[in-house]
Amino acid sequence: MTGRGEQRAAVAQPETGSKADPKVLLMRTAFMDVGVPLGLYYGLRAAGIGQWLSLLVSGALPLGQLVYRTVTERRVAAITLFTLSVMVCGTAITLVTGDARLLLARESYLTGLLGFWMIGTLFAERPFIFTTMVKMLPGETARAWHGNWERHARFRRVMRWMSLAWGASFLIDSAARVVMAYALPVDLVPVLSVVLLVGMLTAVVRISKAYGRRVMADIG
């Protein structure tokens, strides 16, 4: 979901015709990393495959895609290396234990650590929300954000509060995944995990947008 690198200079104009629509990329990523593994899990279960093996196979698909993207792009970003490390370690533990519920709880590692990282960016030069959003904005708007950051203390405060809210949301998501993994029927957890993630992201995005628009209107 993001990198830590900061840019002090003005953001360059986006390349025309060379970048895909962010919404299309998001939908494609969601389909490949969430939809396909979910369908694969329930397809394997319908074929009579056990819960643990179905979870292991369906969970290996996003891992394989991540490795493939790393090899084809010929670079290893810090967040990619972090994600790979967590997924590999979690999978290795479950291979030793053979515990389906532990395999389900593995997803909470990523969301929990991601939440801590988002909160950790509050102590960086610029927080998560700013560095993530500014990369997705048109050149002129991105430059305006950089200007607002330099000139307006309220803008900086809002960026940090929103980053804190996102981090807290992912920590709540992580805790909820652990509870679901050990309290609910195994076959119910994969789909509920997706519902939880979509619901959490929808809520935090809408609240962030509404709050951000109000603050930007006040700043002018």
Assembly context of the chains: single chain
User: What's the number of extended β-strand segments?
Assistant: 0
Q: Are there runs of 5+ residues with pLDDT below 50, and where?
A: 1-20
State the end-to-end CA separation: 29 Å
> How many structural domains can be distinguished in the coordinates?
1
Fraction in helix = over 70%
**Which word captures the global form?**
elongated
Briefly note the structural class of the backbone: mainly alpha
Q: For the report, how would you describe the main beta sheet? A: none
Total DSSP helices? 8
| Beta-strand percent range | under 5%
Mean pLDDT: 75
> Radius of gyration in whole Å, from Cα?
19 Å
Order of helices and strands: HHHHHHHH
Kindly summarize this structure in a few lines:
This protein is mostly helical and 220 residues long.
Structure notes:
The chain is an all-alpha fold and 220 residues long. The protein has helices spanning 22-46, 51-73, 78-97, 100-120, 128-134, 139-151, 153-183, 189-219. The chain has one domain (22-219). Helix content is 78%, strand content 0%. The longest helix has 31 residues, at 153-183. The chain is elongated and about 60 Å long. Residues 1-20 have low confidence and may be disordered.
Question: What's the topology here?
Answer:
Layout: H1 22-46, H2 51-73, H3 78-97, H4 100-120, H5 128-134, H6 139-151, H7 153-183, H8 189-219
Helix pairs in contact: 1-2, 2-3, 2-4, 3-4, 4-7, 7-8
Throw out a few tags for this protein:
8 helices, 220 residues, disordered N terminus, 78% helix, mainly alpha, elongated
